[in-house]
Structures
1.
Amino acid sequence: EDKVVQSPLSLVVHEGDTVTLNCSYEVTNFRSLLWYKQEKKAPTFLFMLTSSGIEKKSGRLSSILDKKELFSILNITATQTGDSAVYLCAVALNSGNTPLVFGKGTRLSVIA
Amino acid sequence: EAGVTQSPTHLIKTRGQQATLRCSPISGHTSVYWYQQALGLGLQFLLWYDEGEERNRGNFPPRFSGRQFPNYSSELNVNALELEDSALYLCASSLVEVIWPQHFGDGTRLSIL
């Protein structure tokens, strides 16, 4: 069975801290790994990673994929209260018949 | 450009009733996906439609069904509602060649009393 596991499940940090969110996966026919941010309702797309070792960056957020060890990390530097959200990791498969397999998410709370 | 729109925002039903949830994809997107997000369980895949055809369904009982209309909007029907069906139901859409959800709607919160 395809599986995506995120850790930690929840995290509380102070503004200005740097956080690392983890995502490991066990799937057949890996295609890509995606990160989403879900604040209240609709998850919004952050990154898609397909190749190992290539860091993707967007402002204070960055992510990297290790296809040998089957994991990805999402880093957020200089956290702000607006970063408080659930961060979802998902894996897209090459099989073509199954869309994304999601992890349970990491709930990040940033306090002032 | 309008995003993925879902209606209603909230729906309250009692056990045994039937619920219908609606989704309009982004213009030009012909694939629609439905996910259930129950507390503590993450997003669970329900249904996937491509250009009017059901492409795949997740591990849910047959009382969860749906369809996609010629204008690519979609409907999710849940029959014989149970307490455990209480969840946020998210719809997403994509271009047909993308094969993963590109944009999500805000969801319908279904509460079963």
2.
Amino acid sequence: DTAVSQTPKYLVTQMGNDKSIKCEQNLGHDTMYWYKQDSKKFLKIMFSYNNKELIINETVPNRFSPKSPDKAHLNLHINSLELGDSAVYFCASSQAGNTEAFFGQGTRLTVV
Amino acid sequence: SQKIEQNSEALNIQEGKTATLTCNYTNYSPAYLQWYRQDPGRGPVFLLLIRENEKEKRKERLKVTFDTTLKQSLFHITASQPADSATYLCALEPSTNAGKSTFGDGTTLTVKP
């Protein structure tokens, strides 16, 4: 009964492809996030959704499009993948007013 | 510009000693600060949160201090164990722009038996 689950865990793809990463949380949280962790271990927020509405969009290329069909899901779609997109992507969730964030296991994306 | 720095990329200590990790920030007005633990190949796991009006927080062998004058938080692990070996991240949430936590680059702690 994983709290925040994201799939796939590993994703290897060629430049120019389009790919999606899925995230689901069963904690009943209102807020979900996508973070990117690069090779230097910097964890940087990309997007935040609250009750299916986008509240934070951090200067991320518009090739990245998050989609939240309901408040338990926040998927990340990436178009025209580039080498620099290679990183580990983490989904997380938190309850509004309680900022402890629960993270998924991460998706290691490798663009070749 | 806003900056969060965790001193020493790596910290090696002997089992049983106290590990002290530092998180410094500049040009920030945090509402609170959090510490997370991250193991290789896993997502960060929340450990402790301390608010701007709190000086110290404890949880079992963990202690966090928050000095808004020095713009610094210290994270202590007492009676350290090899199982404490991991990367520790601090994260600041600004008083404005809720939900936008900014993470430091982490300190990798190794506790040697």
